[in-house]
Structures are given as structure tokens and as C-alpha cells.
Amino acid sequence: MTNPSRVARPKSAAAFERATRSIPGGVNSPARAFGGVGGTPIIVKRADGPYLFDVDGYRYLDFIGSWGPMILGHRHPAVVEATIAAINNGSSYGAPCELETELAEMVVAAIPSVEMVRFVSSGTEATMSAIRLARGFTGRDLIVKFAGCYHGHVDSLLVSAGSSALTLGVPNSPGVPKGCTQDTLILQYNDVQELADFFAAKGGQIAGVILEPVVGNMGLIPPSAEFRKELRRLTHHHGSVLIYDEVMTGFRLSYGGAQELFGDTPDVTALGKIIGGGYPVGAYGGRADILKKVMPAGPVFQAGTLSGNPVAMAAGIATLRELKQNPPYQRLDQLTQQIATGITAAAKQYGHAHQLQRIGSMWTLFFANAPVTNYQTAVASDKQKFARFFWEMMDRGVYLPCSQFEAAFTCAAMTDEHLQETITAASDSLRAMAQ
Ligand code: PLP
């Protein structure tokens, strides 16, 4: 495919071509391959504050932030310092260290529903372990997930998944046997009636319900208050475990995540991204009576060679400490609100049907006629138009998620100047698209 960009990036092109010879598709995670927008990815050389720099020497304002973790921006001095100090004490022990307890205590203090927490090495491991725990705790098999929510590449959750599975139009991957997904039941996000009907029919067999409490993986979709309330009421009534997948929203929408923002109390929470400060960390935590079923405290097996890795723990501690001591949330909310207002005004001015959906520092510009509330309305948006917008922004130095079905993230290293740059780039892009 010809690259839709007007800017030549010969070094990126060559480096990507080289990568395709030894790495499937040239990338180690599919969303990075630009499948949703066409063309080939930039190859990153380094990152600093709100910026990414590619191998051709171009600079981009980074609204991906490694798909969420870099809420403080890249190379935050406190995180760099803590990480180097940890490395100097050895990279991995395979034995307990105090940094694990320190981060666990910070997570427990931040999220009231989390009384105990177990660290793993990715968000996928966190959700995978959370559903195993829900099944082990209840002695039931059925798991409910919502169409378009993405919970990592766990076999049993890779049905009607969002993120790259949705972008690439592969909701069910070859290699996932029917047996793995037959106990995963798919409902529509925000559909209260369907939820109530389903629980009325099958409530006693449902081990757990997993959801993104604010969806980022179909683009940004907020939950309705009624949907959240019914979920809590029904799961409680039927003895099913309510699992909030806060891998993306945890420490992002507020220090205590989406559940703090809404005042919700799930039974189990999956975490990742920000808690590792840019290093591979995931976690699942929740009610102590449930978490005490995890081995070796209980019988539900879960393990990991690098779980609780000291370097990753140190980066997570430094990140959370900074977020606690200098909370960026209000400023991020205001900054993102202004970006949203600016882009909305330009989209209106140049006559593009659009919905700018946002909560705090997470946002998506959908090219759609009506509010996007679930999978069906998300896939109805104009992906080609989004692809054009993506490249117009890219060529103006603004790096957005390379899919209509991903949320953009504003980071704390961004200033009013970056905000103006973004609005100007968006306005120029949307004008160019109208011509
Ligand atoms: N859950 C959610 C909500 C996510 O957004 C992601 C990744 O984007 C995951 C789980 C999987 O996390 P990881 O990619 O670290 O395995």
C-alpha cells in the first residue's frame, strides 16, 4: 500500500522493512503496524517529556504515551532516578523484596475496593488471572464480557474484542479453540435490559462479569450510570464476581481510577500500564476473601518468573508517588477539555460529522453522526475519514492512536503551548480534509 503520508521518512521505511524480515508484520504488537490507517509506522528513536522522536529526526507530540502508561510523560526524572537505583541493586531476584510490598501498599491505599493485590507482568496476565480467580472462588464457569471491550490476548476473552482485534476486523483469532470461548458470553455495553434478562436466565451460573468501566478500546465510551448500577446490583444479588478491568483507567482517570471517579465498588480490579511506570507490570486485586484464594494462600494457581520485578516495582512506586504528591488530574482534565473544545469547533467549522468523546485525559474523535455508546455504534463510524485525519495530524507532528478504536491520552508533561499546537494542527487537518 502507498504510504498516505505526504512526508518522506526514508529511515523509518527502511527500518520497518528490515523488521518485517525477522518479526511477523514488523511489530511486536499489532496496533503498532498502522493496520487501521494504512501506511507504515514511524520507528521511534527516543522519547522525552510529551515528545517522541523518530529515526528520521522528526518530533511528534505523543498522544499515545505507550498506550497509556506514560501519564507523567517520558523520562520523568523521579522515575528515571528510581529505576536506575533499582537496577544498581540487581535486575531480578526470583525471591521476595520490599519494593513489592511498598507498591502493593500504595495500590491498596489508593483503591478502597482493593484489600490485597498480586503483581504479574502484563495487563493480559492480570485479566486472565482475575477470571480464573472468579471461577475458582465461585465454582462456576460462565464469564460475561461486553462486545468491543478488550482485556488483552487471553484466549477466553478474545471474542468480540476491541483494540487491534477490532481495528483489524479479527474478533475471533484462529488458534482459539471453541472450548476456550464457549463459557464466555457476550452482551452489549450500556444495554441494561439485555443485562437484566441475561441475569434472570443464567444468574446462578455466572462466575464473573468483566468490563472496562470506561471503554478505551472501542475509542472512548463512557458507561451510563444505570448500566454501572445494574451491574453492581445484579452481580451482588447472584453472587457473581464483578471485575473492573482498570488496566487503562487505573491511576489515569483519577488516582483511584474509574471506580473512584464514579464511587463504584467492584469485587476484583485488574491493573497494568501506569502502575509499572513504563515497565512490564500488571496486577489484580480486590476483596481479601477472594484474593486469599490465590496460591499459595489458597488453591487457585498463578505464578510468574518476573512477577514483582524490582526494577518495574521501583518505576511504579516512583510514578504513583509523583501522582499522589502532585496530582495532575485536574489540570489534565482542563487541558483535555480545551483540546476537545478546540477540535470540536474546527470539526463543526469544516462540516465534519463528529463526536468528540472524553473523560479526563482520555479522548476520541469519532467521525460519526450520533453518540457512540457500544460496539455497533463504534463500528458505524467513518474509519477512512479517521485514517485521513490521523495522517494529516502525523504530518503536522501530532501522534494520535493509529485507529478509530483507541483512546488518545493527554499527559502531564503537556503545557498550554502543546494544547495550542494540537488545536492548530487539528484545525488545519480538518480544513485540508474538507477541500
Ligand atoms: N485490559 C485493557 C483495558 C487494556 O487496554 C489492555 C491493553 O491495552 C489490556 C487489558 C492488556 O494489557 P497488556 O497489553 O499489558 O497485556
TrEMBL record:
Pathways involved: Porphyrin-containing compound metabolism; protoporphyrin-IX biosynthesis; 5-aminolevulinate from L-glutamyl-tRNA(Glu): step 2/2
Superkingdom field: Bacteria
GO (cellular component) term, any one: cytoplasm
Methyltransferase in keyword set: no
N6-(pyridoxal phosphate)lysine: residues carrying this PTM: K273
InterPro entries on file: 4pyrrol_synth_GluAld_NH2Trfase, Aminotrans_3, Aminotrans_3_PPA_site, PyrdxlP-dep_Trfase, PyrdxlP-dep_Trfase_major, PyrdxlP-dep_Trfase_small
BP-aspect Gene Ontology terms: protoporphyrinogen IX biosynthetic process
Enzyme Commission number(s) of this protein: 5.4.3.8
Keyword field: Cytoplasm, Isomerase, Porphyrin biosynthesis, Pyridoxal phosphate
Gene3D superfamilies for the chain: Aspartate Aminotransferase, domain 1, Type I PLP-dependent aspartate aminotransferase-like (Major domain)
Cleavable signal peptide: none
Subcellular locations according to the entry: Cytoplasm
Keyword flag Cytoplasm: yes
Family note: Belongs to the class-III pyridoxal-phosphate-dependent aminotransferase family. HemL subfamily.
Subunit note: Homodimer.
Name of protein: Glutamate-1-semialdehyde 2,1-aminomutase
Source species: Limnoglobus roseus
Gene name tied to this protein: hemL
